[in-house]
Design a protein that fits this description.
Elements lengths: L4 E3 L4 E3 L13 E3 L5 E3 L13 E4 L3 E3 L12 E3 L5 E4 L4 E5 L7 H8 L2 H10 L10 H6 L1 E3 L3 H41 L27
Antiparallel strand pairs: 1-10, 2-9, 3-4, 5-8, 6-7, 6-9
């Protein structure tokens, strides 16, 4: 029920640690698919001291929602112990992981309802911004930490099964394409004795239209 929802602001805080030591860390961009990706920006002459450090289990989002369609670019760093992001991005973290599991929160950020809310709350003339204050005003259900972890575990099991099914579908498609080529392009379908037709002297007719 909506009455049980709580404002996110009491559970999260901004992070603004700069790369002043010029550490050699992976530099990542952020997409509306809610994943980080290796940046393709030209960094020649760039002052890397201004870039922000994001630690594992910290979030990053792009407040500027202009020209990004209906989705908000936001993701959780679950890969690197430390990485760099643009100074234009907004990193933040959960204050107490005994109150909110970062993965549970990321599940909420993946919801279409969150994207619609963030786009609706974005404001500005030249650029539309979903600022930090609006992020803190986001309301969501906060069950017990045990329940959150249970939900995350069930979600991950489902995602794992989806990934396996996608791999199986890809393999089946590749197999089907290989069989199609073998039978209808190379004419190596099984003859009455189960042997490849063309390579076992199967009768062939030249096709003028196909020039084959």
């Amino acid at each position: 029920m909506k009455s049980s929802y709580k404002a996110l602001g009491q559970y999260i805080k901004l992070i603004d640690e700069r790369n002043t030591a010029l550490e050699d860390l992976p530099l990542l961009g952020l997409s509306v698919s809610k994943v980080f990706f290796p940046t393709i920006a030209n960094l020649v002459g760039t002052d890397m001291k201004t870039y922000k450090i994001v630690y594992r289990n910290q979030f990053t989002y792009i407040a500027d929602t202009s020209r990004r369609g209906d989705k908000i670019a936001i993701s959780l760093n679950s890969i690197f112990d430390k990485m760099l992001v643009s100074q234009a991005y907004t990193p933040f973290e959960v204050k107490d992981t005994k109150e909110i599991d970062p993965e549970y929160l990321m599940m909420w950020f993946r919801r279409p309802e969150f994207d619609r809310y963030a786009r609706f709350k974005s404001h500005g003339s030249a650029r539309e911004i979903f600022d930090w204050e609006e992020m803190c005003n986001v309301k969501l259900p906060i069950p017990s930490i045990a329940k959150q972890r249970e939900i995350v575990k069930e979600y991950n099991v489902i995602q794992y099964r989806i990934a396996l099914n996608q791999q199986l579908i890809q393999k089946l498609e590749e197999t089907a394409q290989a069989i199609y080529k073998q039978w209808f392009v190379d004419f190596e379908f099984p003859d009455e004795n189960g042997r490849p037709y063309k390579s076992n002297n199967g009768e062939m007719v030249f096709n003028e239209e196909l020039q084959k």
